[in-house]
């Protein structure tokens, strides 16, 4: 079984905006649906907590 993880770092609100761009790119490239694990800290938790 192939697994793909996404790590979202900290940095507050600015990091969240950056992560939104990355997630949008992954979605547009057809990769986001293959992500099986998400690890987050700080600003990344804002976005990670709302996924799926």
Q: Using DSSP, what is the number of strands?
A: 2
Strand content: 15-25%
Q: pLDDT average, as an integer? A: 82
Structural Rg:
11 Å
Helix content: 40-55%
Following the backbone from N to C, one meets helices and strands in this order, namely EHEH
Contiguous low-pLDDT stretches (5 residues minimum) are none
- What is the tally of helical segments? 2
Summarize the structure in short:
The protein has 52 residues and is an alpha+beta fold. Helix content is 44%, strand content 15%.
Question: How are the elements arranged and paired?
Answer:
Elements: E1 5-8, H1 12-28, E2 37-40, H2 43-48
Describe what this molecule looks like in 3D.
The protein is α+β, with helices and mostly antiparallel strands and 52 residues long. Helices cover 44% and strands 15% of the residues. It has a two-stranded parallel ribbon with strand order 1-2. Helix 1 (12-28) links the parallel strand 1 and strand 2 (37-40). The protein is globular. The model has no long low-confidence stretch (mean pLDDT 82).
Please name the defining characteristics of this protein.
52 residues; 2 strands; globular; two-stranded parallel ribbon; alpha+beta
